[in-house]
């Protein structure tokens, strides 16, 4: 196994560790879900023609020696391009690994070897090098390198290619290049145009860009790389010198880059959403999916509609676009704090909690008013409770007195009249005429029906005030 391949396998193994669960990868029935830990979602597929859409074939390569590890590579390219990850939505992306282009020189400036880093994605194919997510880096000490892509077919064109982009890096002092600073001293970087497919690096090595007397910096490098994944280090100028400078030979250095892809079935004529929709072979098969026109090259891709996520290229059983539970993701729902989030098919709603209402679920009463109201309600409840206890106690005392005075027996004896406390008060004219006092009670004069005079004895005991005795006088 070559060193570069070993590095590649290690890189892939790292990716594999990050994505082991492939049950969520949507594939055609009976097709392989992953290779070397990389999920292979439809329209990508491995093996049988029914497993992938035309142009999306992936090969699962067994590169034997180191434990028989497998790596996925793009199929039907005339070079081995390892795949790091594939994603179908919301954006169509494929991350791949490409070797770095290089050239090296001897002390008199003679070129001893080079590798132009050609990439050959068919222009009619599904892949484009993403201009949004990648950029071109050039590393060297007296060099101009540019990437050019997509040959101009016939016609009287000014240049041979449709796209060119590059930059110049110059330094004549080993102390100039600084780690992390890629701004012309030993390193430069530049955006690339959209639509790049077949690319090659144009590297200059003589005349004005002579590399004579430049042993401190024997090689130049150029690569397109995913933005943010390369950080220039001054040591990169000297640590990637190939041991065998036979042309073309890869150095032990690869870079990840992002490819855009799109459905471009040019043979069926369906290349934009307007043309593709409702034609046989329309790729957006899931209900709750929609068509989006490609922004990098012709064609279209599919996306799940708002409120859904998943693989829009398959329908039903195998995956498709499924409802997003917005309530589980605070960033996806705008339910105010005083509300409860309820997931619905394709959306969600917010229900105000008790005591709140309106669009932003404000409390019905402002806080101070609510506090006062709560206090009022609580204190009136307490007052009511105390009143009930008082009433109940009074009633119990009355019943106890009634029983103690033989009330029940008296009540049953039909001829006996029982007077209420109010009646007694009236009979004695509010206990106004005291006619005697004993050890146990005071005797008052009373009159019944304005003619019958009676004596009413009332207990002295404070607790037994209610205990009275009525004696009818003889007269
Ligand atoms: C790959 O194919 C293209 C076009 O068919 C050709 O120009 C190129 O030289 C090939 N590259 C390799 C490395 O064979
Ligand atoms: C450098 O390379 C050139 C061309 O390959 C060759 O003619 C020359 O002799 C080499 N010089 C040395 C010092 O090796
Ligand atoms: C680069 O530095 C060397 C040694 O210091 C010097 O001889 C040479 O002229 C310099 N070249 C340029 C282009 O400045
Ligand atoms: C790049 O490297 C420099 C120097 O080592 C470091 O200060 C900087 O944080 C690095 N930047 C990133 C994005 O890794
Ligand atoms: C360099 O590599 C080439 C091709 O891989 C091979 O034919 C040649 O023998 C190698 N030379 C040395 C010195 O290893
Ligand atoms: C895909 O759909 C999501 C959800 O509706 C949306 O946020 C995103 O912008 C869409 N992406 C494209 C490229 O249309
Ligand atoms: C068995 C197998 O597929 N071996 C491949 C390992 O990788 C090298 C370089 O990419 C290929 O040339 C071999 O065919």
Automatic annotation (TrEMBL):
Principal localization reads membrane
Cellular localization per UniProt: Membrane
Q: How does it sit in the membrane?
A: Single-pass membrane protein
EGF-like domain location, by residue?
Answer: 323-362
Does the keyword section mention Transmembrane?
A: yes
- A Pfam match is EGF_CA
Sorted keywords for this record are: ATP-binding, Disulfide bond, EGF-like domain, Membrane, Nucleotide-binding, Repeat, Signal, Transmembrane, Transmembrane helix
Q: Which residues cross the membrane?
A: 369-390
CC annotations in GO:
membrane
Bridged cysteine pairs (disulfide): 352-361
Q: Which positions bind ATP?
A: 457
The molecular function GO annotations come to:
ATP binding; calcium ion binding; polysaccharide binding
- Keyword Transmembrane helix listed: yes
Please identify the protein, giving its name as recorded: EGF-like domain-containing protein
Query: What taxonomic lineage is listed for the species of origin?
Result: Eukaryota, Viridiplantae, Streptophyta, Embryophyta, Tracheophyta
């Amino acid at each position: 196994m070559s060193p570069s391949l070993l590095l590649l396998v290690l890189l892939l193994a790292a990716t594999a560790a990050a994505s082991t669960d492939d049950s969520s990868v949507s594939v055609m029935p009976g097709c392989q879900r992953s290779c070397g830990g990389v999920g292979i979602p439809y329209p990508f597929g491995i093996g049988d023609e029914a497993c992938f859409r035309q142009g999306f074939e992936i090969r699962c390569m067994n590169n034997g020696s180191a434990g028989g590890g497998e790596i996925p590579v793009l199929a039907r390219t005339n070079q081995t391009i390892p795949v790091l990850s594939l994603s179908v939505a919301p954006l169509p992306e494929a991350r791949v690994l490409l070797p770095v282009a290089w050239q090296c020189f001897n002390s008199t400036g003679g070129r001893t070897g080079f590798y132009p880093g050609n990439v050959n994605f068919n222009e009619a194919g599904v892949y484009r090098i993403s201009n949004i997510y990648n950029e071109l880096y050039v590393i060297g000490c007296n060099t101009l390198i540019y990437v050019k892509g997509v040959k101009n077919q016939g016609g009287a064109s000014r240049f041979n290619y449709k796209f060119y982009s590059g930059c110049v890096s110059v330094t004549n002092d080993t102390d100039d290049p600084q780690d992390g600073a890629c701004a012309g001293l030993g390193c430069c970087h530049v955006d690339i145009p959209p639509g790049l497919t077949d690319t090659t690096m144009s590297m200059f090595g003589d005349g004005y860009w002579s590399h004579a007397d430049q042993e401190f910096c024997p090689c130049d490098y150029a690569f397109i790389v995913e933005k943010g994944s390369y950080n220039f280090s001054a040591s990169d100028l000297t640590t990637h010198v190939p041991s065998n400078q036979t042309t073309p030979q890869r150095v032990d250095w690869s870079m990840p880059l992002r490819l855009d892809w799109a459905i471009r079935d040019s043979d069926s004529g369906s290349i934009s959403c307007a043309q593709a929709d409702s034609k046989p072979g329309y790729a957006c098969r899931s209900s709750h999916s929609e068509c989006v026109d490609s922004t990098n090259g012709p064609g279209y891709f599919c996306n799940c509609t708002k409120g859904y996520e998943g693989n829009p290229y398959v329908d039903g059983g195998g995956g498709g676009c499924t409802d997003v539970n917005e309530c589980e993701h605070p960033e996806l729902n705008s339910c105010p704090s005083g509300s409860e989030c309820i997931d619905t098919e394709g959306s969600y709603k917010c229900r105000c909690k008790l005591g709140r209402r309106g669009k932003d679920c404000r409390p019905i009463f402002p806080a101070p008013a609510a506090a006062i109201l709560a206090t009022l309600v609580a204190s009136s409840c307490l007052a009511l409770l105390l009143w009930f206890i008082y009433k109940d106690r009074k009633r119990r005392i009355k019943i106890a007195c009634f029983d103690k005075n033989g009330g029940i027996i008296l009540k049953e004896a039909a001829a006996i009249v029982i007077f209420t406390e109010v009646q007694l008060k009236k009979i004695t004219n509010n206990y106004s005429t005291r006619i005697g006092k004993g050890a146990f009670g005071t005797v008052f004069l009373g009159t019944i029906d304005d003619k019958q005079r009676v004596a009413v004895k009332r207990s002295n005991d404070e607790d037994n005030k209610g205990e009275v005795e009525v004696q009818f006088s003889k007269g």
